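User: Need the bound-state model for guanosine-5'-triphosphate:
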Amino acid sequence: MQTKSAFVAIVGRPNVGKSSLLNTLVGEKVAIVSNKPQTTRTRITGVLTKGEIQYVLLDTPGLHKPKTVLSEYMVKQVNESVSEVDAAVLVTEATGEITNAERQLMETFAALKLPAILAMNKIDLLDEKEKLLGKIAAFSQAFPFSAVVPISALKGDGVEELLREISPFAKEGPHFFPDDAMTDQPERVIAAEIIREKMLRNLREEVPHGAAVVIEKMHDRAEDEPSPDSPANRDIVDIEATIYCEKESHKGIVIGKKGAMLKKIASEARMEMEEFFGIHVNLQCWVKVREDWRNRQSQLRNFGFE
Ligand SMILES: Nc1nc2c(ncn2[C@@H]2O[C@H](COP(=O)(O)OP(=O)(O)OP(=O)(O)O)[C@@H](O)[C@H]2O)c(=O)[nH]1
Ligand SMILES: [Mg+2]
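Assistant: Bound-state model below.
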C-alpha cells in the first residue's frame, strides 16, 4: 500500500478548543483541557492513522501576547509548529470578532504560503446561525481558507468532515509513527499534565498558571524481582510528583485547609491516571516553591521548557 502522511498544526487563540479537537480526532485524551486560557504550554503531538494516511496533529498553545519567559516559549512553539507542517487548522469560536492573534496567524499562513482550514468550533453553543455566517464571511475575506468547517470538538460534529478537508494535503511517504500510536508524549509527561489539569480545574487563575509539575519517580512494581514479602499488589505503579508554585502564598492554597485541596487534586489525578494507563496507581504529591520560575530560564529548562 502506498502510504501518506499529513503534518497539521492546530492553532488559534487561547481557550477556543484546540486541545479538545486534538483529543476528539485522536479518539483518546492525549492533551489536557480546561476552561482557563493558556492551558496548553507546549506542542503536543497526536497521531491518527486512517487507511493509507497518517495524520500527525500538532496541538499548540493558544497564541497570546507574552508576559513571561514561559509565555514567550509558548508563542515560539506556535511559530515553530506552523513552519514545519503541510497545513494548518485555525480553530476559532463560532461567535465574536476576529482577534489580533487570529489576524497574526493568518498573516503567518500567507507569509509561509501555508494552506489553512478554518474550524469554527463550539457550534453546539450557537443559538443563531446568522452569527456563524457573518464570522465565516469576515474570515474568508481576511484569508483564502481552503475550507471552512463548523465543528463541535466536544460533541464530535463536523470532525470527520474536517479530516476529509485535511486529507488532500497528505504527502506520499512512510508513516513516521506506528499505526496504533496516539501520541509521542512519554508517560511521565502525561502523568504530570494530568495533575496540572486537576489544578487548573480546582484552583483559580493565578495559582495553576504559576504551577509546574515534575514527576520524580514512576515505578511499575511488576518490574520488581519477585519476593516472598510482596507477592500481591504487583499490578501497581508508584508515582511521586512535585508541584512547584511560584509563590509561598500559592503553596498554602494548593495544599488547602488540612491538606484538603491537595488531596482532592491528587485523588482526581490518580483516578484519571488509572484510566489512562490501565493500571492501579499509588500517587504521592509534594508541593514546593520556586519563586518566579516562569521568568527564570534555568528553571524553565529544568521543567522541560527547552
Ligand atoms: N460547548 C463546547 N465547549 C467546548 C468545545 N470545545 C472545547 N470546549 C471547551 O472550551 C474550553 C477550552 O478547551 P481547550 O480544548 O482546553 O481549549 P484550547 O484552545 O486548547 O485552550 P489553550 O490550550 O488554553 O489555548 C474547555 O472548557 C472545553 O470543554 C465545543 O465544541 N463545545
Ligand atoms: Mg490547549
